[in-house]
Design brief:
The protein has helices at about 20-30, 35-40, 60-75, 95-115, 130-140, 165-175, 180-190, 205-215, 230-245, 250-255, 260-270, 275-285, 295-300, 320-325, 325-335, 350-355, 415-420, 460, 520-530, 545-550, and strands at about 45-50, 80-85, 120-125, 145, 155, 160, 380-385, 385-395, 405-410, 435, 470, 485, 505-510, 515-520. It is α/β, with parallel strands linked by helices. The protein has three domains: about 40-150 and about 195-355, no CATH class; about 155-190, no CATH class; about 380-550, IlvD/EDD C-terminal domain-like (Glucose Oxidase, domain 1, 3-Layer(bba) Sandwich), CATH 3.50.30.80. The strands form three sheets. Strands 7-8-12-11-10-9-13-14 form an eight-stranded mixed beta sheet. The protein has a four-stranded parallel beta sheet with strand order 2-1-3-4, with helices on both faces. The longest helix is centred in the first third of the chain and has 17 residues, at about 95-115. About 55% of the residues are buried. Bound molecules: FE2/S2 (inorganic) cluster. The site of FE2/S2 (inorganic) cluster (FES) has 10 residues, from loops.
Length: about 575
């Protein structure tokens, strides 16, 4: 007999060939944890719980968990947390992106395999929220996301410090000889001082806002600082909201639709959010069978203003964004551009939410749509002979004097080559050149790390050069800034034109035309192609997850998901 309609502890029984025995045995073992029969007869809210000694951003999760559980219990269900992989951004080799899909599979399968009627997803650090949303979409169980919330800022002399835009800014000063070893050691201890995710509009904060814009987390929760009492109240409310979803037609497949994805793209553009978010949103939407062509991003980018004055694009931090009105204030400014009928995990639509009264926004942090920071969105996709399937530039974090420019290529064939030569004082490079990094894409040995923020060569940084055009198939941290062309697709390791660039070639960037071109004639490119050797890892020589990854990972324009994780489409 199918147990599909069962609920609570009787859902998804372990198969011993005798259904009644299975439920008797399960109840017996669950009782051993001290639950009463009354508790075990309730509906269950699973809590995907991701604290880890390797994840500083989630160090307050035990306290948040208690609040989620309180909310679930008060609303009449039984909360049961379960662990999944946790991904602490700076503790993973070669890069956290490689493990996002693994975490999504872990999340999906544990939601599906264990008895629960709804799930709360507790994530925060960069890849954890996309992984959980990908898993939740694939499992299609009623789900509510609650994020870690951002860190508070700290101080260094007169300056505020917040991870991790200031990490890079101070490291740049140290490389340029503007501050000494003693000062950089002091700064190191002051950059990240509380629980929570990076304090700027980096990837974690962008994904928190995207989760809320999609309708997958409760209104007003994306920006609450990690250590603020409101975050615990949000966690409690999230637990209760998950209970309310049980039996309702509000599953991820009904919340994450083409219209809500469009809303999320608008929000990404208005935030001047992380370039990583386009990869993650593509992967999340892809699990729901929704494609995000980069041409769509460009159409929306041309009609979406940048509204948020946060680092790395502007000057404020996430705690300021929270006090300024948070994502709600952004959504109200974008209202005429949004699809208001989209369902959210509250059971209300986005339009219902935006009808609610609100406090006025702080215009120093969140601009009005009438006088935006920039008239066009923060991200733009570039196409051309260097990137036939596209590349991404965060124009809001770039130097616009470099937007229409032709330059000479200075090529690094790998991350190792870059590390060896970038500070060589004999390197043939000028500030007008384009730095090009090859073989740092998804199938390269480095697995598409956040290495696209190529350092300015020492001989130029010591002369005061702060920005140059830099091009790669890598990613960039959401906390970084500069005129940086990323995610060049196809990547060099898949024979993309990027692999054929040689020192001295001419390259042309035009942000106005949304193009990036390699100005080498076709015959010469064909000659070079004859000598091409891929740097991609040979799956036949690999085992385990490395093998799965090498065989299955898709290119950046498909969200770097695994091919076999896409939904099976009806023909
Ligand atoms: Fe976790 Fe930045 S290191 S969000």
């Amino acid at each position: 007999m199918s147990d599909k309609k069962e609920s609570g502890l009787a859902r998804g029984l372990t198969n011993y060939g005798d259904r009644d025995f299975s439920i008797y045995l399960r109840r017996s073992f669950a009782s051993s944890m001290g639950y009463s029969r009354d508790m075990l007869s309730k509906k269950i809210v699973g809590i995907a719980y991701t604290p880890s000694g390797y994840n500083n951003c989630h160090r307050h999760f035990p306290e948040m968990l208690e609040a989620v559980k309180r909310g679930v219990l008060t609303a009449g269900a039984l909360p049961v947390e379960f662990p999944t992989i946790s991904l602490g951004e700076v503790f993973l080799n070669p890069t956290s992106l490689k493990f996002r899909n693994l975490m999504s599979m872990d999340t999906e399968e544990m939601i599906r395999a264990q008895p629960m009627d709804a799930v709360v997803l507790m994530g925060g650090c960069d890849k954890t929220v996309p992984a959980q949303l990908m898993g939740a979409v694939s499992a299609d169980m009623p789900a509510v996301q609650i994020v870690a919330g951002p860190m508070m800022t700290s101080r260094h002399g007169e300056e505020r410090l917040g991870a991790c835009t200031d990490c890079r800014r101070f490291w740049g000063k140290y490389r340029a000889g503007e501050i000494d070893k003693g000062e950089i050691d002091t700064v190191e201890m002051r950059l990240a001082t509380t629980a929570g995710t990076c304090a700027v509009m980096g990837t974690a904060s962008t994904m928190a806002c995207i989760a809320e814009a999609l309708g997958m987390s409760l209104p007003g929760t994306a920006a609450i600082p990690a250590v603020h009492a409101d975050r615990l109240r949000a966690a409690e409310a999230t637990g209760a909201a998950a209970v309310n979803l049980i039996g309702q037609p509000v599953r991820p497949s009904q919340v994450i639709t083409r219209d809500s994805v469009e809303n999320a793209l608008r929000v990404l553009l208005a935030l001047g959010g992380s370039t990583n978010a386009i990869v993650h949103l593509t992967a999340i939407a892809g699990r729901a069978g929704i494609d995000i062509p980069l041409t769509w991003l460009n159409e929306l980018s041309d009609t979406t203003p940048v509204l948020v004055n946060l680092k790395p694009v502007g000057s404020h931090y996430m705690e300021d964004f929270f006090h300024a009105g948070g994502l709600g204030a952004v959504l109200r400014e974008l209202k005429p551009l949004l699809n208001l009928d989209c369902l959210t995990v509250t059971g209300d639509t986005l339009g219902d939410r935006l009808e609610q009264p609100s406090e006025p926004a702080d215009r120093a942090v969140i601009s009005s749509a009438q006088s935006p920071l920039e008239p066009k969105g923060g991200l733009v996709a570039l196409f051309g002979s260097l990137a036939p399937r596209g590349a991404i530039l965060k124009r809001s974090a770039a130097d616009d004097t470099l937007f229409e420019k032709e330059g000479r290529a200075v090529v690094f064939s790998s991350l190792e080559d870059l590390a060896q030569r970038i500070d060589d004082l004999d390197l043939d490079v000028t500030a007008d050149d384009f730095l090009v990094l090859q073989n740092a894409g998804p199938t390269s040995p480095s697995g598409m790390p956040e290495a696209g923020y190529l350092p300015i060569p020492k001989k130029l940084s010591s002369q005061g050069v702060k920005d140059m055009v830099r091009i790669s198939d890598a990613r960039m941290s959401g906390t970084a800034f500069g005129t940086i062309v990323l995610h060049v697709t196809p990547e060099a390791a898949q024979a993309g034109p990027l692999a054929l660039v040689r020192n001295g070639d001419r390259l042309r960037l035009s942000v106005k035309n949304k193009t990036i071109d390699l100005m080498v004639d076709d015959d010469e490119l064909e000659r070079r192609r004859a000598d091409y050797k891929s740097s991609a890892r040979d799956a036949a020589t690999l085992r385990g997850y490395d093998k799965l990854y090498a065989e299955q990972v898709l290119q950046a324009d498909e969200g770097c998901d695994f091919a076999f994780m896409k939904p099976v489409r009806d023909e």
